[in-house]
Known about the structure:
Layout: E1 14-17, H1 28-54, H2 61-90, E2 94-96, H3 97-130, H4 135-138, H5 141-167, E3 176-177, H6 184-190, H7 196-229, H8 234-263, H9 269-297, H10 299-315
Parallel strand pairs: 1-3
Antiparallel strand pairs: 1-2
Amino acid sequence: MVQDEWKNQSIVTKFIIVGLSEGRDPNYILFVVFLVIYLITVLGNLIIITLITIDTRLHSPMYFFMANLAFIDVVLSSVTLPKLLDILCTLRKSISFAGCITQLYFFQYFVVVECYLLAVMAYDRFVAICYPLNYTITMNSEVRIRLVVVCWACGFVNSLVQVVSVSELEFCGPNIVDHFFCDVTPLFKLSCSDTRLAEAIFLMVVVAVGMFPLTFIVATYVRIILAILKVPSAKGRQKTFSTCASHFIVVALYYGSGIISYTWPSSTLTMKKDVKLVAVLYSIFTPMLNPIIYSLRNKEVKAAIRRHLNQKVNSK
């Protein structure tokens, strides 16, 4: 919370986003690095979406959820990366109050949607492995759509609650956001009003939208692992586990870095830098890695890529 001497100053109408460093010169090397990451993220996820859409062999529940995840990753990276690229290249660090709140809203929205979607994908693998005979009926198109709608609804409620609680706070100065995008915790530190209620709401929401899906995923994978161990042959166990290994890796990367980012203490300069690096991992690197993990470890996706590449070559 900001000290009392700031309370009599003018209301903040814009924020200054520090970015990844406090350097006074453009960092063109980092600009190129993050531009490449952004292009790979967008291109890779769009390829996944396109393949799943046009290839009828990929019209199954697992790939339906995968396409939704790819779309979320494109939008999530687009919430933070363009502004970060602008800061790195031009040092335009200012953002309006409305722009900051808008960025906060969409970031919280898509982060939560991805949390719940990962839980839904874990449930999909659970049904496929533990109840294979009922899989098609249990995960029919109506159920799939309802599950995705619930994910988006949870994201909407979370982001709305977060934005309303933050918007009702007073910001009198300073206006320096020590992060590379507008997030909840850096804004709490800048408020000159009492943030205890807003922080309590944030904590409850984090538990509800973060820990609940994670607990569900862990419990689901315990059941999946127990079911895999009952498979008589080693080859059968390996084949069964491979169907959910990619999802498990994505969950570990996303939740591991996200939990560290929001729970790591930031009392020292080194820790602040570490928190930013971890935030880069789950908000920027994970959306880029998701299509790579799924495509490199998934035989059906690689086969679909080869089929469509061969079709293009043969059509010439």
